[in-house]
Amino acid sequence: xxxxxxxxxxxxxxxxxxVATLVARGIDPVxxxxxxxxxVRRLLGADNAGVGRFEADGSAAVVVAGVGEDSAELMVGRRxxxxxxxxxxxxxxxxxxxxxDEDQWSNVSDPVADGLRVLGIRxxxxxxxxxxxxxWGVVTVMTRRGPFPASTADRMADFTELxxxxxxxxxxxxxxxELADTxxxxxxLAMLVAGGESPEAVFAAATxxxxxxxxxxxxxxxxxxLDGTATLVANEGSTTPDVRVGERWEGYPPDGLTATxxxxxxxxxxxxxxxxxxxxxxxxxxxxxxAAVPIHVNGRLWGMIAVGxxxxxxxxxxxxxxxxxxxxxxxxxxxxxxxxxxxRARIVAASDDARRRIERDLHDGTQQRLVSLGLKLRLAQxxxxxxxPDLETEIDGVADELTGVVEDLREIARGIHPAILSEGGxxxxxxxxARRAAIAVDLDVAxxxxxxxxxxxxxxxxxxxxxxxxxxxAHASVARVTVEExxxxxxxxxxxxxxxxxDPARGSGLIGLHDxxxxxxxxxxxxxxxxxxxxxxxxxxxxxx
Length: 545
Hints:
- By secondary structure, the chain is α+β, with helices and mostly antiparallel strands.
- The chain has helices spanning about 5-25, 30-45, 85-95, 110-120, 150-170, 170-195, 200-215, 255-265, 280-285, 315-380, 390-415, 420-425, 425-435, 455-470, 510-520, and strands at about 50-55, 60-70, 80, 100, 125-130, 135-145, 220-225, 230-235, 250, 270, 290-295, 300-310, 440-445, 480-485, 490-495, 525, 535-540.
- The strands form three sheets. A six-stranded antiparallel β-sheet has the order 3-2-1-6-5-4, sandwiched between helices. Strands 9-8-7-12-11-10 form a six-stranded antiparallel β-sheet, sandwiched between helices. A five-stranded mixed β-sheet has the order 13-14-15-17-16, with helices on one face.
- α6 packs antiparallel against α7 (about 200-215) and α13 runs parallel beside α14.
- The N and C termini lie far apart (about 75 Å).
């Protein structure tokens, strides 16, 4: 054996020995994966190295370790798509080591290739990690210094084969599966929150994830109320007619899960409900044993997640606690968003109520008094003697001015809140708005009916603000307005032929439209390329939350 080969073997054995030492010490698997990546990077002289676990469908690899100059690109938990022209995807397809160089992506135009070019990566090598005969994941190394030497594939394959043994011995593949699973679950929950789903939908999704991860037959999320009762907010798996989501529970067994978690704020388990006074109701559901862990939101005991029945592993509460600590973030975010939407809806509703009161007061009070005063002036004018023509003329002028004030006041009242919107609905109100507009308005509202008042008010002011903007700022000559009911939503499209360049982030009008729509659970999209006019698309749910 040559000196170089011997040195290489010694380096590889030393690297494996360091990893095996970590395994023997019971170090966290994530640290072991980092050590594997760092040893491979050092052995091969690479700039970056990462360890990824393949998802079951082969669509992506979840990063479990990343080291090197660009380690931020290899954050733990990040889901990297398996792009066909890159080495990890080839490993997934063939189960063998693969190398690709920069000419594979130099002419490709997509975010992945763009990122590699920005980082200056010139070569990439990937080798499979086979654990217990199964393709578990991949070790990938990258360099800026040109193609890897021809011997790199063999060196890397030899090392990853040894590293796989360390992973298997530590049962890291199981723990990593749970880590990747948790990341995927949290990603799904985060998407629900970001998409504006209701807290109830987030509760149900989190409970479903808990059932998939830990439960044998049932998983439940329970919220503690200030009065000492508990509300079942989500249930997945087996159930009975007596178990209804949204129902408050009282008088639960004092030694049962709910009471114990509420009293202690800590995880609890019941191995046999037959031994607990008052446990008969739980037994009737077919639940003999169960475990629960608390959910703390913003430092307060918010509720708990419980799973069962079935044999309960000794570490179940610990594993569930790690999961629910992360779920609590999704619960808090969902509640915060819901509270924000509710608060915004209250503000919008209060504003609309104020508008209606002002319009009513103007119409029934000030406007009527001015009309009455005008009639009295006309009566006084008719009683002026013929020999006082100047006085008659003066009264006539004042009466005309008063008529103009009344008309101005009517216009102001319509702008505050058009009475026809409350009386006739959205269709007549929009047709009146179109007739009074300073530009031509092509209106299509023929098929719409009456909707909940908040929806009609929001739709009216969206169209009103859009037409006003088209007139004042876009210098448009025509606006085309379409209002239609589709799939449980009211959809509005307002397009003008103005100068474009409308910026939703600037100007209180568009911001106000966003706030009003989002307060109802709707959305607003603005498309306004320079010189090509502006289109505002609005969607409002017809069933309010």
